[in-house]
Design brief:
The complex is a heterodimer of chains A (557) and B (353). Chain A is mainly alpha-helical. Chain A has 2 domains: 1-37 and 337-557, MetI-like (MetI-like fold, Orthogonal Bundle), CATH 1.10.3720; 68-233 and 290-335, MetI-like fold (Orthogonal Bundle). Chain A is 75% helix and 3% strand. Chain A contains 25 helices and 6 strands. The longest helix of chain A is centred in the first third of the chain and has 34 residues, at 63-96. Chain A starts with a helix and ends in a 9-residue tail after the last helix. With 353 residues, chain B is α+β, with helices and mostly antiparallel strands. Chain B has 2 domains: 5-241, P-loop containing nucleotide triphosphate hydrolases (Rossmann fold), CATH 3.40.50; 246-351, OB fold (Dihydrolipoamide Acetyltransferase, E2P). Chain B is elongated, with a radius of gyration of 25 Å. The two termini of chain B are 40 Å apart. Classes of the chains: A mainly alpha (557), B alpha+beta (353). Bound molecules: adenosine-5'-diphosphate (ADP) and magnesium ion. The site of magnesium ion has 3 residues of chain B, from helix 1. Chain A: It is a multi-pass membrane protein. Chain A: One of its GO terms (cellular component) is plasma membrane. Chain A: It is found in: Cell membrane. Chain A: This is ABC transmembrane type-1 domain-containing protein.
């Protein structure tokens, strides 16, 4: 054990750049991931500078907190369940069945991923709120309220089902249809084939998708803040209110820790139990051939469901778009540019801030992600698994917890960062880099390591090898890491809301503020601007990555 | 320029991937001296530690203990990119995002040679490797044999001190394999580069090597010229792995004769009378006849392979022997069930110690 560590250190010592990188990354993760979390724990155990468990006792004593916990858990479980069903059906239809418009439907399915996470909440208010187009204007309902359980669940389903869809898409695409053919061939009925072959093979993927959606739902801040209402407390907004409303940091910290536990548990299950199984069961290359598991009518039915979901996505975004150009929703539908005028006059600093922060965050996050992925897959050094764990841990940590942690950790010596651009950039980099790391790891594992060894063998240093060989080969992962980093920096809210200041503000926070003060039109206009910027950025990033790797043709050995 | 390679008491222990805490010895105390300009093959079954040994020489694996020297310079602490030991990988490891030309000059560009120098050396190496007209192609437009040539060209253009091959031909079909084998050997002799060559194919090893290192479970069983390891295998493993072998249990009668199942066989030896010996008898060193000979036997299986006939015979009171008879006429083939006599050729016997 020690002998191994010593020999690993010797290898490290021989490559000073590698050694420096490992040390810097370790330090960065300790300071910007672990330390803030530790601060939250410590704060939750204190009351007026005394060590105490009193904060936690409040969970038992106060209905409000108990309800918040129960509501968050039940919403998370339900949204996970329904989200996975929708995601599974969509993934099945769009990967395994021969139906028209697959490409377009695929894009519609993932639009919610690239927009601010509470666009659907705003749409729901437009459609079903007190002056909702459907509830009030069309149906004339007077005492209908969308706020509470229903509103949050609906909104989150539309926000998070696409995530389940994306992860299940990969799973279903990699189950070889020849397995299904083989089962049909030996006399199984279609339903039996699905039940005994297709579904069991995709089960680890299903469980994994459920847990991911559960984590996202638990951590969600925007949808509950818009739609939960006072009668339906949930953990993330409650923690926020404790801190910004009652200035009670210890209670906010305590609620964050409570919020953290189910997420970390789900994450651990997903990562260490399910991911292993998935690796074993799903093998083979993705295939294009279509499944014969469903009969004609069933196929039409499933396709209809996907069309319905896509139609609702279009409706939601259409409403936002129209709302952005409408005087006063519910009363006066005259077209207007006033809301955009507001965004670009009063709110222009916010637009600039957001864009600047996203532009700084994106390359840092992308390169950092690829570097960590590279080190994890290709190098051995002491503490490697700790580094991998630390670097993707923040995926499972709800933004609210991160936000509170950053406030606690960086408003005092030695690192005073609150109120700066730096703290927002750091928060985004460390919060969203896990996705880049994971996709980098996935792509790297498919590239024959001897390609990089060949470069070294021909005289390339570790850094040259990374720059000239590894990076071009992992360009697809690099691209998705960049896009993800940019999208998240443009759309994040739950951690950022604790970190914005008069100097540095974000559009997402503005959207929430506008919703809070009833100016839905301005909120919609901001949302449209965010979505437009994200689309433009994706096009630009794509162009850059293509340029960077011009001679590329992805051959895999 | 050609450099000797010294490998001294080299050990590599891995932590077992399956059971943590356990370790496996991939290489146990290897000693090997490769002379300047020599081509030495590491031969052995899959998993015997050949690749690990080669990768330690290249610098990709850290030895658990022991030394590696190029000339009189100790290499253990030298990083792989400073070793000047060009390697041809089993998977070729061609850079998929670079053209053939850029692949070949990759190492020279890192050396910051002048454009002229690079061009000159590239032209020569591309010509030697028969790649001149496909220099601008992308690697995925190449056949397996062409990719192999790119990998080779990329290594020799470096004019390295040591050349390393890890099963370079294992992904090629049989015809191409034979051809590339000859090309590699000719090139190596022309350039005079000290070479370590890993293969599990004994024919490849026999045909290409100055000397062969036979490995088994991380241990070097024997080092010798192809002729030595075939004619005088040091161990039963070597005898079985290189070619086919029959093993006879014999008792020493005197300095000139041994007994095999009571039949006296002439064999000059140093052992004491009454000692037990295991004697290697190659199948092609046994003559079969229906007229008479040392050992009566029954044919159990007969296969006509064109240049030889391959028999399995049951020798009365001894056991099964493999026999290869050259130039079998269509009519001369003994049928299964027929009674024959087997006579070992004296010169071909070799006792294991
Ligand atoms: N990185 C490693 N970790 C653990 N065991 C290894 C590793 N590399 C090789 N081994 C083990 O060492 C032994 C020798 O492997 P290798 O040198 O690849 O054999 P060969 O090239 O002769 O087929 C095998 O038992 C193999 O499983
Ligand atoms: Mg090998």
């Amino acid at each position: 054990m020690f002998a191994t560590a010593r020999s690993q250190i010797r290898v490290l010592a021989r490559d000073p750049i590698l050694l420096a990188l490992v040390v810097v990354i370790f330090a960065a993760i300790l300071i910007f991931v672990v330390y803030p979390l530790a601060m939250v724990f410590l704060a939750s155990l204190q009351d007026r500078s005394q060590w105490t468990l009193a904060n936690y006792a409040l969970i038992g004593e106060r209905r409000l907190y108990r309800n918040a916990l129960w509501n968050s858990l039940s919403v998370g479980a339900l949204v996970g369940f329904i989200g996975v069903i929708i995601g599974y059906i969509a993934a099945f239809v769009l990967t395994r069945l021969d139906v028209p418009g697959k490409r377009l439907l695929h894009y519609l399915m993932i639009v919610p991923i690239i927009s601010p996470p509470f666009v659907s909440a705003v749409s729901i208010v437009f459609l079903f709120g007190n002056n909702g187009l459907i509830t009030r204007q069309l149906l004339g309902l007077m005492d209908f309220s969308i706020y509470g359980f229903h509103g949050v669940v609906w909104s989150q389903i539309f926000t998070f089902a696409p995530i389940a869809y994306l992860s299940l898409r990969g799973v279903l695409a990699s189950i070889s249809p020849t397995l299904e053919d083989a089962a049909l061939n030996i006399g199984a009925s279609r339903w039996q084939v699905f039940r005994k072959v297709t579904f069991p093979l995709s089960l680890p993927g299903v469980a994994s998708a459920f847990l991911v959606v559960f984590i996202e739902s638990m951590a969600d801040f925007g949808n509950p803040l818009v739609l939960a209402g006072a009668a339906f407390p949930m953990l993330a907004p409650q923690a926020y209110l404790e801190i910004t409303g009652s200035f009670n940091l210890p209670r906010g910290a305590m609620l964050s820790v409570i919020l953290l536990l189910p997420s970390i548990t789900a994450f651990a299950i997903q990562r260490y139990w399910i991911a292993k199984r998935q690796y074993v069961t799903v093998t083979g290359k993705p295939t294009a051939s279509t499944s014969k598991v469903v009969s004609g009518p069933v196929k039409s039915f499933l396709y209809g469901l996907v069309l319905l979901f896509s139609a609702i996505v279009i409706l939601f975004y259409g409403v936002i778009f129209v709302g952005a150009f409408t005087q006063v929703w519910g009363f006066n539908y005259t077209p207007t540019l006033n809301h955009f005028a507001y965004v670009f006059n009063v709110g222009f600093d916010t637009v600039k801030d957001t864009l600047l922060i996203a532009i700084i965050t994106t390359p840092i996050s992308g390169i950092f992600g690829m570097l960590v992925a590279f080190l994890v897959v290709r190098r051995t050094f002491p503490g490697k698994s700790a580094l991998e764990f630390g670097s993707i841990l923040s995926f499972a940590v709800p933004g609210t917890v991160v936000g509170i942690g950053y406030v606690l950790a960086f408003n005092q010596q030695p690192l005073i960062l609150t109120g700066t651009l730096t703290i927002l950039v750091l928060c985004f980099v460390f919060r969203y880099v896990p996705v880049g790391i994971q996709s980098g790891i996935a792509v790297l594992r498919q590239i024959d390591p001897s390609i990089e060894e060949a470069a070294q063998n021909l005289g390339a240093s570790a850094l040259t090898t990374f720059r000239k060989v590894t990076l071009p080969l992992i360009a697809p992962a690099f691209f998705s890491a960049l896009v993800y980093a940019f999208v998240r920096a443009m759309t994040a809210i739950s951690a950022a809301i604790f970190l914005v200041s008069a100097n540095w503000n974000l559009m997402t926070v503005q959207i929430l503020n506008q919703v809070g003060s009833g100016r839905l039109g301005v909120a919609a206009a901001y949302s449209v601007v965010v979505i437009a910027l994200v689309l433009v950025a994706i096009i630009i990033i794509n162009a850059i990555v293509v340029r960077m790797t011009r001679h590329m043709n992805m051959v895999r050995f | 320029m050609a450099e000797a390679v010294h490998i001294r008491n080299l050990v590599k222990r891995f932590d077992s991937p399956d059971s943590p805490g356990q370790s496996v010895f991939a290489v146990r105390s290897a000693n090997l001296e490769v002379k300047p300009g020599e081509l030495v093959t590491l031969l052995g079954p899959s998993g015997c530690g050949k690749t690990t040994l080669l990768r330690m020489v290249a610098g990709f694996e850290e030895p658990t203990s022991g030394d590696i020297l190029f000339g009189d310079r100790r290499m253990n602490e030298v990083a792989p990119n400073r070793r000047d030991a060009a390697m041809v990988f089993q998977s070729y490891a061609i850079f998929p995002h670079l053209s053939v030309y850029e692949n070949v000059v990759f190492g020279l560009r890192l050396k910051k040679l002048s454009a002229d120098e690079i061009k000159k050396r590239a032209d020569r190496v591309l010509a030697i490797s028969g790649l001149t007209h496909m220099a601008t192609r992308s690697p995925n437009q190449l056949s397996g044999g062409q990719q192999q040539r790119v990998a080779l060209a990329r290594a020799i253009i470096m004019e390295p001190r040591v050349l390393l091959f890890d099963e370079p031909l294992s992904n090629l079909d049989a015809k191409l394999r034979d051809q590339m084998r000859v090309e590699i050997r000719e090139l190596q002799q022309r350039l005079g580069i000290t070479t370590l060559y890993v293969t599990h194919d004994q024919i490849e090893a026999m045909s290409i090597s100055d000397r062969i290192v036979v490995m088994n479970s991380g241990v070097i069983e024997q080092i010798g010229t192809p002729r030595e390891v075939y004619a005088h295998p040091a161990t039963r493993f070597v005898a079985e792995f290189i070619g086919k072998a029959n093993f006879l249990n014999a008792t020493v009668r005197d300095g000139q004769t041994i007994d095999v199942a009571g039949v006296p066989v002439p064999y000059v030896n140093q052992a004491n009378a009454g000692d037990q010996l295991t004697v290697v008898l190659r199948p092609e060193a046994i003559a079969l006849s229906d007229q008479g000979g040392d050992f009566p036997a029954t044919v159990k299986r007969a296969m006509f392979l064109g240049n030889i006939a391959e028999y399995l015979i049951e020798v009365d009171g001894v056991g099964e022997w493999l026999v290869d008879s050259p130039n079998p006429g269509e009519s001369g083939l003994f049928q299964p069930g027929s009674r024959v006599f087997a006579t070992p050729s004296r010169a071909a016997l070799h006792a294991l110690s």
